[in-house]
Amino acid sequence: MDSSNAAGTSNGGSGDGDPAAAARRNTKMPKYSKFTQQELPACKPILTPKWVVSVFFLVGVIFVPVGVVSLLAARDVVEIIDRYDDACVPVNMTDNKLGYIQNETISKECTRTLTVTKDMKQPIFVYYQLDNFYQNHRRYVKSRNDAQLRDYKKANQTTSCEPERTTADGKPIVPCGLIAWSLFNDTYIFNRGNENLTVDKKDISWKSDREHKFAKNVYPSNFQNGGLIGGAKLDSSIPLSDQEDLIVWMRTAALPTFRKLYGRIYVDLKENDTITVKLDNNYNTYSFGGKKKLVLSTATWLGGKNDFLGFAYLIVGGLCIFLAFAFTLLYVIKPRKLGDHNYLSWNRHPAGR
Amino acid sequence: MSSRIKEMMRVATARLGGEQSPRGGTSQAGRAEASRTARLGGGGGSLRRQPQPQAPTVRTIYCNDREANAPVGYKGNSVSTTKYSVLTFLPKGLFEQFRRVANLYFLMISILSTTPISPVHPVTNVVPLSLVLLVSLIKEAFEDWKRFQNDMSINNAHVDVLQGQKWESAPWKRLQVGDIVRIKQDTYFPSDLLFLSSTNPDGVCYIETANLDGETNLKIRKALEKTWDCVIPEKASEFKGEIQCEQPNNSLYTFTGNLIVDKQTIPISPNQILLRGCSLRNTEYIVAAVIFTGHETKVMMNSMNVPSKRSTLEKKLDKLILALFATLFTMCVIGAIGSGVFINEKYFYLGLRGRVEDQFNPKNRFVVTILTMFTLITLYSTIIPISLYVSIEMIKFIQCAKFINNDLNMYHAESNTPALARTSNLNEELGQVEYIFSDKTGTLTRNLMEFFKCSIGGEIYGTGITEIEKGGAERAGVKIDDDEGKRSATAVHEKGFNFDDARIMRGAWRNEPNPDACVQFCRCLAICHTVLPEGEETPEKITYQAASPDEAALVAAAKNFGFFFYRRTPTTVLVRESHVERMGSIQDVAYEILNVLEFNSTRKRQSVVCRFPNGKLVLYCKGADNVIFERLADGNHDIKKTSREHLEQFGSAGLRTLCLAYRDLSREQYESWNEKFVQAKSSLRDRDKKLDEVAELIEKDLILIGCTAIEDKLQEGVPACIETLSAAGIKIWVLTGDKMETAINIAYACSLVNNDTKQFIITSETDAIRDAEDRGDPVEIARVIKDSVKQSLRSYLEEAHRSLRSTPGRKLAFIIDGRCLMYALDPALRVNLLGLSLICQSVVCCRVSPLQKAQVASLVRKGARKITLSIGDGANDVSMIQAAHVGIGISGQEGMQAVMASDFAIAQFRYLTDLLLVHGRWSYLRLCKVITYFFYKNLTFTLTQFWFTFQTGFSGQRFYDDWFQSLYNVIFTALPVIMVGLFDKDVSASLSKKYPQLYQEGIRNTFFRWKVIAVWGFFAFYQSIVFYYFTAAASQHGHGSSGKILGQWDVSTMAFTCVVVTVNLRLLMSCNSITRWHYFSVAGSIAAWFLFIFIYSAIMTSFDRQENVYFVIYVLMSTFFFYLTLMLAPVIALFGDFLYLSLQRWLFPYDYQVIQEMHKDDPHEYSMIHLPERSHLSPEEARSYAISMLPRENSKHTGFAFDSPGYESFFASQQGVGVPHKPWDVARRASMKQQRQQQHTGRS
């Protein structure tokens, strides 16, 4: 600072023997850099027809095969869906379904017969599907306490579990909250002829949930003790981490129509096999007009029967290839020379504005 | 001890209270003061108000007596320009931040989100808000810290203060009013001082006021004779004067006060006042008394309140934000109504029986609706882009500090001046300017005045031909021989003098038919001025320091004619005259200057009364032709007539003219007048006005000597720049105080007007108006002018429309003079005026006052709602600069006042091309892109939430995790858009200038129209649907061979991943040029998201939070479905945009796109900058330039783009980083005066 001041006051630096240095210090000329002069090397993509057609074509070429593969995978899946909520209501109660389901004295047992439409390779996944069930409702979603579930020391912690926090006499409910309270409680028993098809209910939940969100030493307590029973009861001798139905149920669904995994059957089913399902139709979907469905499905690497992805790929891929041709055609029909200065606005309206 | 002081103070207060209180006129002194003021101020109707009226109108200062001054409690001399202190920083800084609506909105949302109504954790809104606030506060703190350091270095500078009987060094901040200080040569005045004595004889000192007004010429200050002996400390300590003066105010060039010494009252004029910020020159040291300290000094009072401007784009942005609020509201209403309808006890699993909180109570659906409304506002708050403002601010700041200030193309090597962005608010405004209002002198022209021709006694001397005449002749088809070699041997070309006529050079005038007139002419030139000679007293080596280059040129002319002015003392002017009778012999003559009647813009003339050695009294006067002609004695019509003709001839050659006149005075005449003059001079109130009135009394019955013509050279590159700007669709108006002929000729020279142009001229110089003037009734004159203006406006407007229809391509020009303009600006005529001037390509307003300049600018700004730019160099342009949307000051040439008022400062008019066509255009394009992109990305994100709302029973459940939402704006999508704001450019700088028409896209606001926004909005809508439904489809089936089902948080994480990827890719798609910074930032943002989610979903915390997203990403990544969706969703989402962009480009290309295509194979341009100047550098300069190009240390000075004017630059320059000045950089004193006047008009 001092030296530059000195140079500034000295007469053009002629005295100090180094005029160049003085000039250099005195100049306010900006330093050149590509950044400040805005000349950073850059790629300047121009969406020329060549690019447009190539991109469309490339996308098409990639997407169509992916679509075909996904679609084929989805086609391999065999899915049997059976809606049983209406059918299981006794004929005399069809006008009062709510009365039926809320009346504990009426047996909820019900038998359904399913016919296998195609060969099904094991494992066969058993799902239940609910409709119009807003597991993603805000009041519902937040009505749980994760700390309580994973740490026995925090069993008393029931914040945010309203309205299922405590029993009437103030004891904390474990697991608390609406989600656990409304646990699905229909049960299914499958028979093929006389052969009992065992449903394996192990490993139906994600491992991370089992191991980290639900503790091995937390046991249900005070659960479903209140006046209103929302759904299934839990065996209070089994730790939460082994209550897989609960764990599955508590991974709340994104949409009001959802499936939950019930179990797996490790038996191959043949086409036209008849399966009888003895089910306990306990869960109340009648009050809000929800549907209950039982789903038997195989799975591929892509999962269950989902044509959506395959079709989407196929359609987009096809559209892209079509557009590639369409654009080529457009360029033939309505060619525009690149950089044609007739397109400049001031050449189009020569008179000016 | 302290109690003693207190006691003393109380006593002193009691003693002085009466004098200080305005109402307490009971004390003797108070009454005396009041009566004196009344007597002196009673002369004329005092229209002038005190700039800052305060309770006591008079301040009394006891010099050298701290105790007497103590009770009044004058402020100390320490200054603080910081906005905050350590304690106030947080509250005040936050308050400032929350004055922004966006921040306040988010604060409210944050508060709302702490209530149970909120679907989101407070973190969602608090984190982005705090980050935004943090960035803003850090910026504020940094700037304030710089200011603080600046203050500290100033406050701790040392000055010698009289303590007892010797000088003691003390820091500036310790100074108090009334202290006696000693200032040494080349140091700065620590406060406003009353000059007491100097080491120079005659009590004179020289000061440089560069920090105040940029004028580098030295000015003389002269102490009152009474105080001359205070040089030595012993004497100074005896000095016990009492100063009574006006209260502190911000008028730099006025001061009224009296010094009372030994019961004698002496008037103080600005001539004895030394202002803080000026420095002492050519004087060993001076002694002075402190009168105003610290923030009460004039320079500090000037640095207050700068009018802040907001760009038009930002105002439009406000509308966009409003539209977003409307959208938000609509969405919330839809959702809220839905929730009211949905909520029902039948959903038993929601536990809605019994006691339910209000929000979900099905028994009161109305409350549910209202509360859900708030829930949804919190949920959808992301629709307002919180980081938009801070991003824009950052982008603009870097654009200014790094790009504009460092542009080599705008660096003027000769004056060593780079461009300077003084505000960073208006970058994009530069890209939309449609009207430029330009000052002429100093902006279009160089303000390098050269004496070119003169007319003496009815004879024209000077054979030169101006550029304008050449141009005119060429247009007329006459070839003019322009060979430098042919110039006669007598031709002289030096600074200020470019004249060739053997008839009068070097005393040859005595052979002319009218030698007496020549003598008077030369004497007038040599005597009637305020020039200071500097350097050796020989004709070759002397340099003249003048307030105006015209003056220096005139004195130089006198020198060349044989009247060499070589020395000025406070009372005399010494001239070495060629002997009137004998050729070759010289004599030194001392003319005693009795009075100087200074130039100002109302007077438009300057006179001196001098006494010849033989005792003859003569008044010499020079001034504008109309002013002089009004005051001429009767008779001698011939010479008046020929002189008038000559004046017109000079004017049409683009020359600036002055008339010279003199008057012989008798002693009695003079003495009676001088009495009045002295009285006026010592009056406390309205001194200027009275002085003007007194001057009128003597400046009459003048005898015309002749007139001078000075060439005003055009700035380099002006015509080319104007041509480029016109091609860019910018209309240029010239607003000048010059005569109509001069103005029109400059317009010709600048190719604003050519022979094909149809000119509409409204002038007050018509016969009808002259007749009315001769009759002399002012009301009648006004009526006549008004009628004629009205009539011509109407007929011209019709004619213009007709011409527009018949020959559409024809250029039209409108020329009006100030007097007519005054009437045309009348509300009744304003519409016609505006209509006519908007049709015309160029408009020239001549003879306009600074105020009219501002009126014209705001006429177009407000009346036509066009974006305007004013460019000027002088103080008379300040109001115009402030009135327009963008104000540009020419730096490095004239005074600093225009620069201080401006938003951008450039060294040359021609740099406007770069500033507007390159920087402005790019800034505009970039900001449009940034804003629309912000709009798009937030809308897309929020709409996915909106779609989800429909499927959650309108409960307002959030789709995304809290942290996703809070980091979306500030981390995952923040950086790339800033890169676009900095680096995107459609075509290179050289192409921007080559195709100026590209600029019209900005004028038409092509890139920030509702249409453009609608397109982005449509695609945001489309994309959000894609993201939501494509991923939501996932929750229904098993995904993978395990058959397990994904939950809500898996789906939302997947959707969020798609959004982040797509939104970042979309940005890349809209880039015109992609640098490696783009790649880094885009890839970095996407990587940041994955990094975040990998870590975030892998940890469990002991905090009370729902572990919703625990492990989701790993769960997702274990399915093929995730990868397929991640590939599909962005492609489908961008499919629409891509299709749109391809079709748009192919079928309806923007101009810039065509240009891009035309030049797509051009090599990169970064080898194209060689020398920024096409000027010729001397070998020495070239060498220093080459050296300057070598790598070197960064300057510590980083530009003060945000600083307030006046103050900062003063201190910046004190630290050696100030605004540069050329050695010949002198400013017109006229501009100062006009500034003063304008302050008055502005205030009254």
What is the compact description of this entry?
Chain B: It catalyses: ATP + H2O + phospholipidSide 1 = ADP + phosphate + phospholipidSide 2. The complex is a heterodimer of chains A (353) and B (1244). Chain A is an alpha+beta fold and 353 residues long.
Please characterize this protein's 3D structure:
Chain B: Residues 61-125 form the P-type ATPase N-terminal domain. Chain B: The active site is at 439 (4-aspartylphosphate intermediate). Chain B: This is Phospholipid-transporting ATPase. Chain B: The chain crosses the membrane at residues 320-343, 366-392, 930-948, 968-987, 1008-1031, 1051-1068, 1080-1099, 1111-1135. Chain B: Residues 13-56, 1224-1244 are annotated as: Disordered. In chain A, the strands form two sheets. A five-stranded antiparallel β-sheet of chain A has the order 2-10-4-8-7. In chain A, helix 3 (49-76) runs antiparallel to helix 10 (307-333). Chain A is of the alpha+beta class. Chain A contains eleven helices and ten strands. Residues 1-18 of chain A have low confidence and may be disordered. Chain A has helices at 2-9, 19-26, 49-76, 97-102, 138-141, 146-150, 178-181, 207-213, 244-250, 307-333, 345-348; strands at 42-43, 79-83, 109-115, 124-130, 187-192, 195-197, 199-200, 258-265, 274-280, 292-297. Chain A has two domains: 48-77 and 302-331; 78-298, no CATH class. With 1244 residues, chain B is of the alpha+beta class. Among the domains of chain B are: 175-302, Calcium-transporting ATPase, cytoplasmic transduction domain A; 408-442 and 716-917, 3-Layer(aba) Sandwich (Rossmann fold), CATH 3.40.50.1000; 445-475 and 491-664, Calcium-transporting ATPase, cytoplasmic domain N (3-Layer(aba) Sandwich), CATH 3.40.1110.10; 920-1156, no CATH class. Chain B is 46% helix and 16% strand. Chain B contains 42 helices and 36 strands. A nine-stranded mixed β-sheet of chain B has the order 14-35-34-33-15-29-32-31-30, sandwiched between helices. Chain B has a nine-stranded antiparallel β-sheet with strand order 17-16-28-27-26-25-24-23-22, sandwiched between helices. A six-stranded antiparallel β-sheet of chain B has the order 3-2-4-13-5-11. In chain B, helix 12 (388-404) packs antiparallel against helix 29 and helix 35 (1048-1069) packs parallel to helix 38 (1120-1147). The model of chain B is unreliable at 1-55, 482-486 and 1166-1244 (pLDDT under 50). Classes of the chains: A alpha+beta (353), B alpha+beta (1244). Chains A and B meet through helix 1, helix 2, strand 1, helix 3 and helix 5 of A and helix 35, strand 36, helix 38, helix 39 and helix 40 of B. Strand 1 (42-43) of chain A pairs antiparallel with strand 36 (1074-1075) of chain B, so a sheet runs across the interface.
